[in-house]
Design a protein that fits this description.
The protein is mainly alpha-helical. It contains five helices and no strands.
């Protein structure tokens, strides 16, 4: 298995202009796959959810049950939710 240092040294040997082109290509693929849109939608959803009363009730419940292991209940519940078809 490659260490972080070995990986960093391997990347350091790649010419900067090649790294730039690879980064631009990866960012373009991420954009085409909706990454930027999902980030914006996540921020908008978060802003709305922080402004409505049901979200405050949910936050209060989570803060109340989290120390008693409630996060495990939530994780187990989420694992049993039906998966959406792709």
């Amino acid at each position: 298995m490659q260490t972080v240092r070995e990986h960093a040294l391997r990347i350091a040997r790649v010419p900067a202009d090649v790294l730039l082109m690879e980064k631009m290509a990866l960012n373009r693929v991420a954009d085409l796959n909706g990454f930027r849109t999902s980030v914006v939608l996540g921020a908008e959803t978060g802003a709305v959810l922080h402004a409505i009363p049901p979200a405050e009730e949910l936050r209060a419940t989570i803060w109340r049950i989290w120390p008693q292991g409630g996060h495990k209940e939530i994780q187990e519940r989420d694992l049993t939710l039906p998966k959406l078809a792709a």
